[in-house]
Amino acid sequence: MVHAQDFIENKFPKDVKEIIAYNDDLEGHLDLSKYPNLTKIEFGSNSRLRSLKLARPNKISYISTFHSGVDDLTFLADTPNLQTICLSRTGEKIGDGPGNAYIAKALREACKENYRLLSQSDQQIEQERENNKELKQKFANAQQENQALKNQSQQKQQTIKDQQSQMNELSNIAFPNNPYDFTKLKQDIIRLKFQELAPQVRNESAKLAQLISEAKNKAGNFSSVVDLILETQRQIVKNNETSQQDKLSGKMEAYQTILASSLEGKLQTLLNKKTEVLELEKHLGSLQQNLSYK
């Protein structure tokens, strides 16, 4: 057995017009696309020769593949000049002579149409493969998203479980040997926080009073402006409306201008302490309100 491609390329130069390889025991696939000048090819009695590929375009007018293994005749679609064909199995010639050339042409056209249909079918199959690939990818993405959501759900459930465990632990510390009671635990925490915060509010309020007294002494004739700026500061902290905030900010700037020379850097310290006390009082009031609704 001889590999068809190697045999032909070693024996025939690329510019030949005829290739006759009769009964040379050729096998495999034969690609003649680099032989554009061929007008005649004959590969009879090569039973292991499986397929042919021709140059596009080509000048071939005579093809013989009788008693070969070439069953796929789609290569005939690339033979516009074909006049005579010798079939693979029977050796019968079609179009042998000018009068019957139309038969070879008809066969060539039939092969060409078959080739077109096969190509179209291949394209459809390839498109289906692409569609299936896309669907598989979408399905894989959906699975990943579902898994991510599942993981998030599990994490949230674990977080809730951990928080519940922590609350139970706090309850056991506050009320040993008693079942978990969220309302009671909440009230006790509020009470403890209130007891902690109340002295702090008193202490910070005392510091604020001392700062106010010192500021008024330094302000002299403008001591009343100290009360005005502190009241304005209180309104700013408690009022969230933009229009009111703008008006109050204007008043603050005016008061700060009046007190700037006498209080120098002490004014901002006073305002910061006022804000701190207001926030503490607000927090304490909220705790007290929750205690009253127990």
From TrEMBL:
Residues 147-165 have a biased composition (Low complexity). It comes from the Eukaryota. Residues 145-165 are annotated as: Disordered. This is 15946_t:CDS:1. The lineage of its organism: Eukaryota, Fungi, Fungi incertae sedis, Mucoromycota, Glomeromycotina.
